[in-house]
Amino acid sequence: MSKIRIGIVGYGNLGKGTELAIRQTPDTELASIFTRRDPSSLEALTEGVPVYSINNILEHKDDVDVLILCGGSATDLPVQGPELAENFNTIDSFDTHAKIPEYFAKVDAAAKKGGNVSIISVGWDPGMFSVNRLYGTCILPEGENYTFWGKGVSQGHSDAIRRIDGVVDARQYTIPVEKAVEAVRSGSNPQLTTRQKHTRECFVVAKESADKAKIEAEIKNMPDYFADYDTTVHFISEEELQRDHSGLPHGGFVIRSGKTGINKETSHVVEYSLKLGSNPEFTSSILVAYARAAVKLSREGAIGAKTVFDIAPAYLSPKSAEELRAEML
Amino acid sequence: MSKIRIGIVGYGNLGKGTELAIRQTPDTELASIFTRRDPSSLEALTEGVPVYSINNILEHKDDVDVLILCGGSATDLPVQGPELAENFNTIDSFDTHAKIPEYFAKVDAAAKKGGNVSIISVGWDPGMFSVNRLYGTCILPEGENYTFWGKGVSQGHSDAIRRIDGVVDARQYTIPVEKAVEAVRSGSNPQLTTRQKHTRECFVVAKESADKAKIEAEIKNMPDYFADYDTTVHFISEEELQRDHSGLPHGGFVIRSGKTGINKETSHVVEYSLKLGSNPEFTSSILVAYARAAVKLSREGAIGAKTVFDIAPAYLSPKSAEELRAEML
């Protein structure tokens, strides 16, 4: 079997993580990188991999088996996803939960038109967390799902702080409240408010002239992002931010707590938890596994948009069904 | 849509758990129970459900959409699995890991001959633990899988003790060694011996006349079952056994610990853990979810034997793909 040729669209944190993940999978290879920047300004880590302008991507249709779209959900993917799905098998990590049905419909129509497979919203949430919510709910239909995120850096919340006047840079950690996690793990199925589940801790570099009290108040009162949480703000120097907060660790838990028995007298707790040294490196490792699945499905004649719910676990593996049954069942 | 009609084959702990699980799923119904015992000696918990002799099972081919085989892997399933797969869609929890390839081949041939779908080795190990080993391995190809079982009752080990001369009854708990679990969770990828991973604790009711020291030595030196473990033996009364050890709790963890990054400098730990109030009630809840999947696949025209690796998560759910994307992704 020839290797699966992967093209990366967008060479930021996620694109770079995807390149690293491809290097760890002997059955895939990085065919090319597509960028909106001047291609001559970029050099792939992997020797000999060409970097092309995204404007010329259609010229390379025959050189890649699947594209991994590493752009953002706010503005990149809503445009790129449907456009590219018409011409390539694609994988993306579209994560605006509320807009998934609309995005799915557009990508599905494009993929069907082009005869391709597109797996959308791949990653850990949406993604592996979703799969675990689904498995847990199907196995224990009478119960509750709980999702906790962190401790980890939320890039969306960090960006929101950076947009405040007087802020030079910022890093925001989402932290699950230990007491709430323990209550859920006990099987007591507690009702928890937003504030009871997570706290937010912010490390902010402010301009020397800035009014720190004003910045702190602006953060803590920001609707949606911070107002519903207990938020702590620390002002630190740019050096401290670089030294202590340059990584992108993350993680979290999905817990399904359910009851069985004639009188619902038996408790069960199913927990899936992640402790990630690097959010983009883990996410891109998932993207590469699903890229393999997309190519296998496409070779079988499947078309259209899919999600992680539609992909049997065996499709993620380079091994045969026989090997998996013998070694891993 | 009419309800999925499920037949239960074998009405022991697992069969009774399956009946309870069906009661919690509005889209399924218990059609009938098949037993090797005298059918008039059994009464289903669910009013109006007929109990038939397994000898007459073929007369009821048109009354059930799928059979859940609740017999044991040692002697029941190797015979029943292939026989019934030729005439019904089936689900079983065949758990003799080493014999899975051989069993799969026989069930596959029978299911294909009869045009049915059979999902074998469903439960939590093999089953959900296998799925998590597979997902973890595909996402983090450079790493280690660790499986810990317990704290919980091992019925195989309890049975092994009961076969010792002078033993009236026994209950054996498998207990993961906390220090080993913590070492794995830290991401240090330790090499662990059998003895370092689990201990075994036995509660034994002996005949009054029995030589307890001899029984204890016989347990601790039993090859495969106990000799490779640190084993503790407690002699208790029959009343104590009934009072303190009548439940069948179980659980365990699958941990995938892997590295990413240009020099494998980034650690990730993925953990799936179960805390089960009742092993048979949880296992049978999984069986019912996969019974739904088997019927959906069969209605789509699929045939042959499958495992949990071959079943996309969405097939386990009574909800539509649209609902799942909107509510659970």
Architecture overview:
The structure is a homodimer of 329-residue chains. Chain A has 329 residues and is α/β, with parallel strands linked by helices. Helix content of chain A is 34%, strand content 26%. Chain A contains 11 helices and 14 strands. The first copy, chain A, has a 7-stranded parallel sheet, sandwiched between helices. In chain A, strands 8-9-10-11 form a 4-stranded mixed sheet. In chain A, a hairpin with a 5-residue loop joins β12 and β13. The mean pLDDT of chain A is 96. The interface between A and B is large, with 66 and 67 residues.
How are the strands ordered across the major sheet of chain A? 3-2-1-4-5-6-14
Residue runs with pLDDT of under 50 for 5 or more positions of chain A:
none
* Structure class of chain A: alpha/beta
Oligomer: homodimer
Q: Please give the count of helices of chain A.
A: 11
| Strand count of chain A | 14
Instruction: Specify the biggest β-sheet of chain A.
Output: 7 strands, parallel
Share of helix among residues of chain A? Answer: 25-40%
Output the helix-strand order of chain A: EHEEEHEHEHEEHEHHEHEHEEHEH
Cα distance spanning the termini of chain A: 25 Å
Spatial shape of chain A: globular
| Most extensive interface, chain pair and sizes | A-B, 66 and 67 residues
**Overall radius of gyration of chain A:** 22 Å
**For the residues shown, what is the average pLDDT of chain A?**
96
Strand content of the residues of chain A, in percent? 25-35%
